[in-house]
Amino acid sequence: MNKPWFAAIALICSLCACKKAAFDTALPVKQTQQASPVTVILGQNLPGYTIPHIFEGLSYETALLTESPDYLNENNAVLIQLIKNLGKGVLRIGGNSSDEIEWGGDDAGTDSLKRKLTKADIDRLAAFAKAIKWPVLFGLNLADNNAVKAAAEADYVHTALQNNLYALQFGNEPDVFFMKPRPHNYKYADYQREWDTYYAAVKSTVPGVRFAGPDIDPFNTRWLAEFAKNEAQKVILLDAHYYNYGPASDPSLNINNVLRPNKNMEVFLQGMNKIATAHNLPFRISEANSIWGQGKPGLSNTFASALWALDFMWRIAQNNGQGVNFHGGGIRFVYTPINIDNGLITARPVYYAMLAFKYGAIGGKIIPVQIINRDESDNYNVYACVKPDKSTSLTLINKEIKKDFSFTVQLSNTTSSIKIVRLSAPSVTALNNITFAGSTINADGTFEPAITEQYRTDQKNIVVTVPAGSAAVVVIK
């Protein structure tokens, strides 16, 4: 492992010039440049939305069950450990291949290029879900429009997974079925008829199973609204996908497409929240990542994607989203949070963002953050929540490439101690040597935080410097 990169660290707690905080630990300070000042006011006594314990999730193609039987497998100790590091979550099985692979039951088929999904595949998934203790959001094949076969598959999935089955859903991004496999004039009304047929068949076969939907393409709130209006009483969750940009083949995409905010994202999330709230349902981003089309090398697998993912999770939470499943799998998925290459399983940048979010957000109640006189050209974000232990957790994300920020944080309550852990890498384009809390993931999948900056104080103001292209999680007690 190369030497971790540490940049400027400053924490000053004061009420007046004559009174200084006493530090538990004196750490070396490496000042890279003059940090730009930012003033932040936290509303510690105004808790809002709660971030669920199952907020984080992973999304995998159904084809992974048939093509890589050793991956989502109870004997894959490294992958299981990596998932356990994240705490509770939701495992989603679906993607494009869920509408390409048919249910075979006991028959795997003879075509090696189009293997059927079998009971043995589902048994392995069930054993894996039991090992990681994550419920499964499972997608059935809607493309073949065979409700009888879907009901048989649902029956076996339900029997195998039992309480680890979170919900079933029909079809992957059905709002783009007009491209294939349906006629070009395929519309929502056609989808609703198919969905209702599937629902009736599955419900009569497996009365106790739960449903989610519509698992649509990004930004299509019109379909989401229609689905909620017609099917809200039949589902426990509304879900949709999100990709920041794409396709991956677009030569114009660059690092700024990962780091800079996509204004459409906030509009989409607000729209989902409005629809879900109107029908008293939760919503989740069931498939997401930085660039659609399996990700772009040099962008989706860099540290920039970790900063994007951390910011994205907070944006979802601020809009009352109940979670996100980052899509991935093997080496062909450039953006995958957890990679497998020639049998070697490793954590990618997005995974480190998930660690940071777990540490700084999971289980907390979001509190308001006010930024004074913000320069709108600056690319940073500040988020905060009150954790169940009454501590305040502050996440500072600096997505600038060359600009450090010095955040002066004004608290509602007097603090007695502060801990800081950092998400960092040699640069935003780094593929490796990414650390959280000064540590990388061990070869066996375990994670042991190495560096936590700790201070004692009795003041209501703190100052934290966050270097360019990095993030910090500050726990205030």
Automatic annotation (TrEMBL):
Where are the annotated coiled coils located? none
Using the record, list the residue span of the signal peptide; answer none if the entry has no such feature: 1-22
Query: Transcription: is it a keyword of this entry?
Result: no
InterPro entries per the UniProt record, alphabetical: GH, GH79_Enzymes, GlcAase_C, Glyco_hydro_b
Query: What residues does the Beta-glucuronidase C-terminal domain cover?
Result: 383-473
Q: Is Signal included in the keywords of this UniProt record?
A: yes
Keywords, alphabetical: Signal
Protein name (record): Beta-glucuronidase C-terminal domain-containing protein
The record lists the organism as Mucilaginibacter xinganensis
Organism classification, top ranks? Bacteria, Pseudomonadati, Bacteroidota, Sphingobacteriia, Sphingobacteriales
